[in-house]
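Standup notes
- HV: blocked on the assembly model, inputs below
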Amino acid sequence: MDTRVPRLVASVLPADFSELGPEVRRLEKAGVDRIQWDVMDGRFVPNLTFGPDVIAANRGHVSMGFEAHLMVEDPDSMLPRWVDAGCEIIIVHAEGTRHLHRTLSVISELGARAGVALNPSTPLEAVTNVLHLVDLLLVMTVNPGFGGQQYLAAMEDKIGAARTEIDKRGLDIELEVDGGIAGGTIGAAARAGADVFCAGSALFNGPGTLEDRVTALRGAAIAGIESR
Ligand code: DX5
C-alpha cells in the first residue's frame, strides 16, 4: 500500500439518519474512498448509534468500502455480524477487548481486514506485540463518542512513533486518524505520518459543495505528506 496516497474516509455520524442511503451515495459521488460506521454501545462510550442491520441496509447503495469502528465493550460476541453486514474492515478498540491477539486473528479468519484503535490516553506499546496481525491502526485524535470535537495535536507524537514502527518493520498497515480532522488539522496529521483520514463535520459542514470539501481535504493531506 503506497503510504503517500492519502485515503479519505467519511464518518456518517453527522449524516441525516433518515436518509443514510442517499447520504452514502452522495459521499461516493464526491470522491470519498470509504465509509466509517461509528458503532457505539452506550457503555464503552457515552453514546449509542447503530447496529449491523443499519449498515447492511446501506451496503447495496454504494460499492466503496465500509469500515466498522467498534466503540463497544466486548466486540468478540458479534464479529461475524459486521462482516455479514458488508464491512471489509473491522476496527476494535485495544481498550475494549481482553484478548486482542485472539480478536484480531478471528477478524482475519472471518475474511475481513483487522483494525485496532487507540484512545488518546493509550500508548502505542499497547499494540506493538500484535502489529503483525493488524491491517489498520487507528490513532484517535479525540476521545471517542462524539463528532465535532477539538483535534488533539498532542497525538502527533504517537502518530509519528507508529509511522516509524510500521516502516522499520516493513509492515503493510494503513495508519488512520479520526477526530477533529479538518482543513486546519489534516496537514499536521499527514506530516506526522498518517495516510488515512476520517472526517465527519468537515465533510458534512463547511464552505462550498461536498466535492469542494473532499478536494480541499485531500489536497491538504497530500501537502502534509509531501512535507514529511
Ligand atoms: C468519534 C468518531 C469519529 C467522529 C468524527 O468517536 O469515531 O469518527 O465521528 O467526527 P469529526 O470529524 O466531526 O470529529
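- HV (later): unblocked. The first strand starts at residue 7 and ends at 11. The mean pLDDT is 97.
- Next: hand off to the docking folks.
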